């Protein structure tokens, strides 16, 4: 891979993927919104070129310089949190944008399209999540992601491109949103606030963003055309253990209020990624221990 295109590049996975690719001297074209509040998170790097192009502008984007690209990583998605996750019209537009991204990939000469999906495609599934685990999404976001994965695969093949779909579980790392459990817990402990939590009995699978980016890069190179992969750490710990580990890195002995809030309705109590297909096809393995990942987040925020 010599050149890659990325949408949704300003989040924790996107910024980590840019860092991973540029370290391997891959030229990266970042398609981003002009008014994004997170533009400052994109690196100033000679291997990175930014083009202002919102998702609803993808259909009209031209390859002005005629440079051929190799892989298109599509992570851009609107309505990922809050009530917008169940806005059916918005999620339906995301499916169109994903198809527009496939068309854009073709115009830019890409041989492969890598789309990023979500565990939400499975719906209320518990246990070890595999590519062939039955999917029953329960909200517009999951329905949209599932539909986008199926339709972009078919459309990419119609256009003569390879296609890989990656369902992410819980990712944490620098540049993550402040509303995530990991980041909100970090900031509350740092400010002296006592985090109010559930009992924390859920068994969860957390993967550090740089490890996720390495997996995506390898899937861009070695993933099998037409396959769906599930991406997580591949191991589980109780949520209480994760939160306690965060506390112990930042302020050992600080109070944590477990059981202060109830579980959500239909709370999923066990989620684990089956990463065997990624390991088999690419040789990838996660490398970052959870507490080390938290230390890397703190170091990043201290800069």
Q: Can you walk me through this structure?
A:
The structure is a single chain. This protein has 303 residues and is an alpha/beta fold. The protein folds into 2 domains: 3-171 and 206-233, Rossmann fold (3-Layer(aba) Sandwich); 176-204 and 235-273 and 287-302, UDP-galactose 4-epimerase, domain 1 (Alpha-Beta Complex), CATH 3.90.25. It has helices at residues 12-23, 88-107, 140-158, 181-190, 209-222, 239-250, 276-282, 290-302, and strands at 3-7, 27-32, 48-52, 71-74, 112-118, 127-129, 162-168, 170-172, 196-197, 203-204, 206-208, 228-231, 237-238, 257-258, 271-273. The protein has a 7-stranded parallel beta sheet, sandwiched between helices. Strands 6-15 form a two-stranded parallel sheet. Helix 2 (88-107) packs parallel to helix 3, helix 4 runs parallel beside helix 6 and helix 6 packs across helix 8.
């Amino acid at each position: 891979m010599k050149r890659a295109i990325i949408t949704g590049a300003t989040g924790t996975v996107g910024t980590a993927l840019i860092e991973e690719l540029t370290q391997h001297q891959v030229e990266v074209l970042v398609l981003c919104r002009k008014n994004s509040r997170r533009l400052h998170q994109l690196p100033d790097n000679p291997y990175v070129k930014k083009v202002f192009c919102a998702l609803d502008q993808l259909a009209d984007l031209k390859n002005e310089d005629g440079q051929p690209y190799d892989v298109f990583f599509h992570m851009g998605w609107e309505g990922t949190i809050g009530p917008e996750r169940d806005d059916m019209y918005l999620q339906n537009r995301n499916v169109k944008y994903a198809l527009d991204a496939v068309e854009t990939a073709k115009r830019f000469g890409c041989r492969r399209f890598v789309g990023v999906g979500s565990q939400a495609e499975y719906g209320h599934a518990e246990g070890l999540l595999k590519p062939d685990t039955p999917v029953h999404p329960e909200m517009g976001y999951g329905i949209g992601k599932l539909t986008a994965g199926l339709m972009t695969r078919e459309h990419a093949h119609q256009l003569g491109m390879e296609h890989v779909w990656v369902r992410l579980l819980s990712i944490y790392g620098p540049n993550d949103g402040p509303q995530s459990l990991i980041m909100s817990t970090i900031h509350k402990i740092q400010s002296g606030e006592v985090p109010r939590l559930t009992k924390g009995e859920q068994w969860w699978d957390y993967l550090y963003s740089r490890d996720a980016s390495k997996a995506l890069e390898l899937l861009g190179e070695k993933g099998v055309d037409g396959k769906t992969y599930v991406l997580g750490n591949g191991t589980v710990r109780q949520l209480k253990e994760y939160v306690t580990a965060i506390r112990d890195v930042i302020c050992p002995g600080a109070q944590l209020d477990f059981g202060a809030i109830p579980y959500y309705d239909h709370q999923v109590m066990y989620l684990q990624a089956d990463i065997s297909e990624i390991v088999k096809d690419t040789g990838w393995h996660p490398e970052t221990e959870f507490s080390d990942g938290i230390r890397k987040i703190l170091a990043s925020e201290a800069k």
